[in-house]
Specification:
Order of helices and strands of chain B: HHEEHHHHHHHHHHHHHHHHHHHHHHHHHH
Strand order of the largest sheet of chain B: 1-2
Number of helices of chain A: 20
Structural class of chain B: mainly alpha
Number of domains of chain B: 3
Number of helices of chain B: 28
Low-confidence stretches of chain B: 515-526
Shape of chain B: globular
Largest interface: A-B, 51 and 46 residues
Oligomer: heterodimer
Radius of gyration of chain A: 21 Å
Mean pLDDT of chain B: 86
Number of strands of chain A: 2
Structural class of chain A: mainly alpha
Strand content of chain A: under 5%
Strand order of the largest sheet of chain A: 1-2
Number of domains of chain A: 1
Distance between the termini of chain A: 57 Å
Largest sheet of chain B: 2 strands, antiparallel
Chain lengths: 462, 654
């Protein structure tokens, strides 16, 4: 019962945070060239600055949107075993750490909270899964990320040695020796590419998704994956612009391979969560393509796609979680004809599937279109074709999966099923709303993103 | 006025989809039909405003998104082209709505069906009213999704699911091509507005323009079911018949043609590309007609006929005769919708029997259906002075008289075109053939179905017959009424919506050709009379052919050559069928497993990653474990050996 009360408190805290961030949006100045809402924590002669700019703002918005929904969704765990009582605390701590990661302007604190997210998530996958495989998955998740993070730690040491500070805006203006900066670039890229995840380092993600409970998957796909591109935008682009440009062909090649590869692999998956997980990899690689096409359309499109993908994949995982609660399976062979029992869920899932496909009018379409435009504008025609193949295959596996589980003849053991409960409505409706609202009025995000500060990042390249 | 169109259709969808369950089926269906009728009224007023009073409407509702120099607005235009399309779409849509009230009355999800139809109409209106390519793409994708939902409407049937998924996949190839061409448009023009692009296209590198148009063409080929990507269209006939009539005959499949006509300026200077369009169009016309001739499923025949007629529209686009194309599009929509709805009427009466071989003698039972099919078929086969005559014959005539006087063409291409001309002409013959086939087998041949289906014979009410009657009248008169307005000499109807380059203006050559070819032979040998003779002759010929079909079949059954010929056409040329798609899907799935998942994800990455590392560590640990024997002399031995090694190193480095 303690846990349930804690749940209520946590939901209250994060919902009020969501309201506050909406209020901040009202007074947010998109034309401000510097950071806003600065807050400096001074402790033991160390000053840590927390601030918002237009990039981090939307990630914080996404965090405050998804965390209360996850907390709300874990209400159902009162019927499930004792291990689930820890869910709320873990989700809450992940949320707080994410807020710190997205708002801190100090690379050391960024690193510490970046690392600290691993712990609750490791425990979360480890205890809240349902199969023995969850141990393997949590180890995989933990070690893959921590190997990358060691490189980041080392590169932070080097950064500190040469600049004497870990403060971000000072690092942006520091110049580093050529060889050192190359090593630092590679180390940092390695860290973030594991988090994205990019092609050779991606196999932790499907495992972690399959074994994590619904809320874990939502957090993983919706927020944790965004840490990689966010880190690249924050550190790689402004600190080492020349090197980023120098290594861009390599990154673009990796991302193109990743898109085609994961899209093809998704065709053969039978676990719905794995399908969405691989699809997330493909989408995040699209984001990387957009970032490294070095023009405004690609850059803004990839940030927009990250936000849209956070919403859409969150909604997809919630829908799959709801299906799993009813049927206790995620294998598409065992699911059929769900529309007969759960028409409302089918409608919600259809909206999210359309979002994943990138139908015009949903948020992902704007992102994908802008990324394609950006790639073409930089004359990366091979990557353009790779991205197009990715979108095409995305349609195939999304529609096929939807068709298999929602339509066709219902099996006799999955007819008597209740449709959405109230709290599930409350979880899904905001996501549907945001998915469609961002698709129809994308300018509310794009206008804020197109300020001078953002152009500082990419003006070097244009 | 324009927004009222969107309002009525979307409101019909919204209210029926979300609140339809509060009312009974008839009320909700009538409500949505009423909304669509209001939209039709608005479209008629718009037609008067825009086409007859020559005042195009341009409307910007606000910004959608902007990035740097790129601005995409919610901008809409109604010019002559759009308002003709609006009329066509809404007339067919209203007819389909009225028809579905009766046709779907026994279905528990009728309200959902009506709402999907309205949503489809909404997206189609968005497509034709768009003023930039991204808005067009909303409609383009939206009609695709609505088509998926509607084909899959009886979603427990496996075949419906299969064909719906195939429709989505094949269409998506076109959509992707369109997306790529949009990105190229951004690369070149930094804009998606028609106005910007059509002004600047002359100053752009022709290679970019070529690729943009190639991808537009692939998109149009996918959507309009041209050769290569036409496979989804016959498959999509698994859906309910009103859907086939609205989506797969009249409106959605014409979206590709519309795209080409809308961006006709881009295609004007690309003569090689227009040759490609001619080739694709004439081949599709021929293949569709021949395959349709040998089919036995009544809906499949009409579907292949749609393919072939769309080929004619494509062909007209390739000849730069965009007015002929849109003219044929409009009239074709009427008589093809009529054919489909009447076929549905027959199928419904015969308890969902679709095979022509199980029809027969319905002339007595369904006289009205007979009249409707007769009008539709005659119009389709171009019987003089019905609407199909005025649209189709013009395209064929202009193609046959296609003199290449451009410098761009050389003599070899001219000789190649002879094949295409032959194909387009033979397609007419086969069109007459399958029209007569449907007529003969369903209405005159002896009744071949069993006794029970006669007992359960079911007559539809007057509500079903109203749209048939309406469309019949339109198929008779629309061609004659609109000829001078839409494709007449020096018509000012299309205003600025369709522009023809003077060097591409075939009408001129056409005119000369016919003057020389026919006119001096006397009054009775002018082109119209030629077509009349031909059509009547072939209609009678095919009627005789099919009435002696028993004997012919008897002979051909035992003749290896004729048998294999019929099999060849009946199996869709043995390779232009869905097996080719299945082959590619199979290959890609095998590729995904064997060369991707097995080698990388479960192979190299796993071995170099978690599995390999754990294995190495485990073996290393096991070997180390063996050193921990627990005997003192072992340990002391290790200590001595290591001290010696250290000493050695020390000595070496000093």
């Amino acid at each position: 019962m303690i846990s349930l009360n804690a749940n209520k408190i946590f939901i209250c805290i994060f919902s009020s945070l969501f309201i506050i961030i909406n209020l901040i949006w009202l007074f947010f100045d998109p034309f401000n060239t510097t950071t806003q809402y600065n807050y400096i924590v001074s402790y033991l002669n160390i000053n840590i600055r927390f601030a918002l700019d237009s990039i981090s703002f939307f990630f914080i918005y996404l965090t405050t949107l998804l965390i209360p929904l996850c907390l709300l969704f874990s209400i159902r765990s009162r019927n499930t075993p004792v291990t689930h009582y820890y869910n709320n605390d873990l989700i809450f701590s992940i949320g707080i750490l994410l807020l710190i990661v997205f708002s801190v302007f100090d690379i050391l604190i960024f690193y510490i909270s970046f690392e600290a997210i691993l712990l609750p998530f490791f425990i979360y996958i480890g205890i809240a899964g349902y199969r023995q495989r969850r141990i393997h998955a949590s180890y995989l998740f933990f070690f893959y990320t921590i190997i990358g993070s060691f490189f980041m730690l080392i590169s932070i040491f080097f950064l500190f040695i040469y600049s004497g500070t870990t403060y971000l805006e000072l690092l942006w203006v520091t110049e580093f020796p050529y060889l050192t900066s190359q090593l630092i670039w590679i180390a940092l890229f390695f860290t973030f590419s594991i988090k994205v995840p990019m092609f050779p380092f991606h196999i932790w993600l499907p495992e972690a998704h399959v074994e994590a409970p619904t809320e874990g998957s939502v957090l993983l796909a919706g927020l944790l994956l965004k840490l990689g591109p966010y880190g690249m935008i924050r550190f790689l682009f402004p600190i080492f612009p020349e090197l980023t440009y120098y290594y861009a062909p390599f990154v673009i090649t990796l991302a193109s391979i990743g898109i085609i590869y994961t899209s093809f692999i998704t065709l053969r998956q039978i676990d719905i969560k794995k399908i969405i997980a691989y699809s997330s990899i493909a989408h995040m690689n699209m984001v990387i393509l957009g970032l490294f096409s070095f023009n405004e359309a690609g850059f803004l499109g990839s940030i927009f796609l990250m936000i849209g993908h956070g919403i859409v994949s969150g909604g997809l995982f919630f829908c799959i979680g709801i299906i799993y609660d009813r049927y206790h399976t995620k294998i598409i062979h065992y699911l059929s004809g769900i529309i007969n029992g759960m028409p409302v869920l089918s409608f919600c899932l259809f909206i999210f599937i359309l979002g994943n496909v990138g139908l015009p009018g949903t948020s992902n379409f704007i992102g994908e279109l802008l990324i394609l435009c950006g790639i073409a504008y930089s004359h990366l025609f091979v990557s353009l074709i790779a991205a197009a193949i990715g979108i095409f295959l995305c349609t195939i596996y999304s529609i096929y999966t939807y068709n298999k589980i929602i339509f066709l003849m219902p099996y006799k053991y999955n007819i008597y099923i209740s449709d959405l409960y109230l709290f599930e409505y409350i979880v899904l409706l905001p996501l549907i709303f945001f998915s469609l609202y961002l698709g129809v009025f994308p300018n509310i995000v794009l206008d804020s993103l197109q300020n001078v500060q953002l152009y500082n990042f990419i003006n070097i390249f244009i | 006025m324009l927004l009222l169109l969107f309002f009525f259709t979307f409101f019909s969808f919204f209210s029926c989809f979300f609140f339809g369950r509060l009312f009974n089926h008839l009320t909700a269906s009538l409500f949505s039909t009423y909304n669509l009728q209001c939209a039709l009224l608005v479209a008629i007023i718009l037609f008067y405003d825009v086409c007859l009073c020559q005042s195009p409407i341009y409307l910007v509702l606000g910004q959608w998104f902007n990035i740097g120099f790129l601005t995409v607005d919610w901008s809409f235009i109604i010019d002559s082209l759009t308002s003709v399309m609006l009329l066509v779409i809404l007339i067919v849509s209203v007819c389909t709505h009225i028809y579905s009230i009766e046709y779907m009355a026994t279905d528990p999800h009728q309200i959902k069906f009506m709402s999907y139809l309205s949503l489809f109409t909404f997206f189609m209106l968005v497509l034709v009213c768009s003023y930039n390519y991204i808005i067009l793409f909303i409609g383009w994708e939206g009609v695709g999704i609505c088509s998926y939902l509607l084909v899959n409407f009886w979603n427990t049937r496996l075949s419906a699911n299969k064909s719906a998924i195939m429709a989505v996949f094949v269409n998506k190839i076109g959509d992707i091509a369109l997306l790529i061409s949009f990105s190229l448009l951004y690369c070149v023009f930094l804009s998606f507005n028609y106005s910007t692009i059509f002004v600047c296209y002359e100053y752009v590198n022709i290679n970019y323009l070529f690729f943009i148009c190639i991808f537009f063409l692939i998109g149009a080929i996918g959507k309009s079911a041209q050769l290569g990507l036409h496979i989804w269209l016959p498959e999509a006939m698994e859906g309910p018949t009103p859907v086939s009539s609205l989506i797969h005959a009249a409106t959605m499949v014409t979206a590709g043609i519309f795209l080409i006509i809308r961006s006709n300026l881009l295609f004007q200077y690309l003569n090689n590309l227009s040759l490609f369009i001619i080739g694709v169009g004439s081949m599709t016309a021929f293949l569709g007609a021949t395959i349709g001739f040998f089919q036995w499923d009544i809906k499949k025949i009409i579907a292949y006929s749609t393919c072939s007629q769309l080929g004619y529209m494509f062909l007209a686009c390739g000849l730069s005769n965009f007015t002929y194309s849109i003219n044929h599009l409009a009239h074709h929509a009427f008589f093809k919708a009529l054919l489909f709805l009447t076929a549905g009427y027959i199928i419904h009466s015969l308890s969902n029997e679709q095979d022509l071989r199980k029809f027969g003698s319905l002339f007595i039972l369904l006289p009205f259906g007979y009249i409707a099919i007769l009008i539709g078929s005659m119009s389709l086969s171009g019987f003089p002075f019905l609407s199909g005559f005025f649209s189709k014959e013009k395209i064929i005539e202009s193609f046959l008289s296609f003199y290449i006087t451009n410098n761009y063409y050389n003599i070899y291409l001219y000789h190649n075109l002879f094949i295409f001309k032959l194909m387009a002409s033979l397609a007419v013959l086969f069109t007459i053939g399958y029209s007569i086939k449907i007529l003969y087998y369903s209405f005159f041949y002896i009744y071949q179905n069993n006794y029970h289906s006669l007992l359960s014979f079911h007559y539809s009410s007057l509500l079903t017959l109203i749209p048939l009657l309406f469309l019949s009248v339109l198929s008779i008169v629309s061609g004659y009424l609109c000829e001078d307005m839409m494709v007449g000499v020096n018509t000012n109807f299309w205003n600025s919506s369709i522009f023809t380059l003077s060097s591409n203006n075939i009408y001129f050559y056409n005119f000369i050709y016919f003057e020389f070819a026919y006119n001096f032979n006397g009054l009775f040998f002018t082109k119209d009379y030629l077509a009349l003779y031909n059509t009547c002759y072939f209609i009678i010929l095919f009627f005789i052919f099919f009435s002696h079909t028993d004997e012919i079949l008897f002979i051909s059954w035992f003749n290896y050559y004729t048998y294999s010929l019929v099999t060849f056409f009946n199996k869709k040329y043995l390779f232009i069928n869905k097996n080719i798609i299945h082959y590619f899907i199979d290959k890609s799935y095998f590729f995904a497993y064997n060369s991707m998942l097995k080698i990388f994800d479960k192979g190299i990455i796993e071995i170099l990653g978690p599995y390999g590392i754990t294995k190495i560590i485990n073996s290393f640990v096991n070997k180390n474990n063996k050193l921990q024997t627990g005997f003192v002399y072992h340990y002391s031995g290790f200590i001595i050996i290591s001290i010696l090694i250290m000493l050695n190193i020390y000595i070496l480095f000093n």
